[in-house]
Amino acid sequence: MSAPERLSPPPLSPDRHWALFLDVDGTLTPLMDRPEDVRLTEDVISLIERLDQRLQGALAVVSGRAIDNLTPLLSPLDIAMAGQHGAERRDQYGYHQADVPESLIDHVRDALHEFAEQHDGISIEHKGGSLALHYRNAPDLYDRAREYIDNLLAGCDKQMTAHEGKCVIELRTSSDHKGDAIRAFMEKPPFAGRIPVFLGDDVTDEDGFGTVTELDGLTIKVGDGPTCATYWLEGPEQVAQWLSDSLDSLKEA
Ligand SMILES: O=P(O)(O)OC[C@H]1O[C@H](O[C@H]2O[C@H](CO)[C@@H](O)[C@H](O)[C@H]2O)[C@H](O)[C@@H](O)[C@@H]1O
Predict the structure, then answer these.
(1) Is residue 23 annotated as part of the catalytic site, yes or no?
(2) 252 CA distance to ligand 1 centroid (A)?
(3) Which domain holds residue 164?
(4) Residue 14, preceding peptide bond in cis (omega within 30° of 0)
(5) Whose C-alpha lies nearest to ligand 1, atom 23?
(6) Does 176 contact ligand 1 (Cβ within 6 A)?
(7) What is the distance of C-alpha 31 from the center of its chain?
């Protein structure tokens, strides 16, 4: 992986059939101190709605958030979604979730809350089948948090794995990743037979870029950081502009 070359993506052209996959935090919306304070603007919601119609439903958000959390965030949209980095998916075929060993999740959740109670600025997000420890408001505590998590997971026979994101350590039981979710969507209508396009900003989006590259699609990295994506956009504002340009371009069909 290398730093992106900062090649601007062209808008989606009307002569091809595209399937659009969108990350949420850092891509559709700027990062904020607290995940629960994030809102999508009405403009972005409207763009997604019109693109979803134009692409005949071949649009999905692919997020680290839980679907239960994405649903109100994206309201009133009723679109395909993958949550918890691919551990769950919801589309016209129903809801699919990787197996969740609940006693393990409960044990790890309690241990993480214990750590958070002892360390100001640390917060825990419980997503159902996975968990996240946020340290954006206490970045100096990263080393201590990572060591605590490594010890905790070693004591659980490594049935969960830890993944780094932006000021967050995500703990998952599922080995599914964003690329697996995109591949699963691409196997069925309305996605099947189309060219996938994925926009994402974080380390965990690299799995999505890898899969989309294998499927001969387009990959767009948002913001700084090493990536295997081909194209680059500076931030959520530029993403919204690209979505708007793509919508205009697709209307020409
Ligand atoms: O895959 P995404 O849709 O980008 O979700 C990744 C994680 O996003 C959220 O955390 C991040 O955004 C927060 C709000 O801006 C920020 O406070 C935090 O530091 C970031 O890591 C979300 O809370 C996580 O569950 C997602 O996995």
Answers:
(1) yes
(2) 35
(3) 102-172
(4) no
(5) 35
(6) no
(7) 13
Catalytic residue among 15, 23, 106, 110: 23
The atom number, within ligand 1, closest to the CA of 69 reads: 25
CATH number at residue 120: 3.30.70
Q: Is the full-model pTM beyond 0.90?
A: yes
Same domain, 136 and 84: no
**CA dihedral sign, ordered 53, 57, 58, 59:** positive
Q: In one letter, which amino acid is 86?
A: G
Strand partners, 194: none
| 124 ligand 1 Cβ < 6 A | no
In a domain, 224, yes or no: yes
Cβ 91 under 6 angstroms from ligand 1? no
Q: Identify the segments of the chain with pLDDT beneath 50.
A: none
DSSP state of 34: S
Question: What pLDDT sits at residue 45?
Answer: 98
Cβ 171 vs Cβ 128: under 8 Å = no
Distance 84 CA to ligand 1 centre (A): 10
Neighbouring residues of 137: CB distance < 8 A, sequence distance ≥ 6 = 33, 34, 121, 122, 123
Q: Which two three-digit tokens encode residue 146?
A: 């990572």
Choosing from 122, 147, 172, the residue where a domain stops is 172
Q: pLDDT of 61-108, one tens digit each?
A: 999 999 999 999 999 999 999 999 999 999 999 999 988 889 999 999
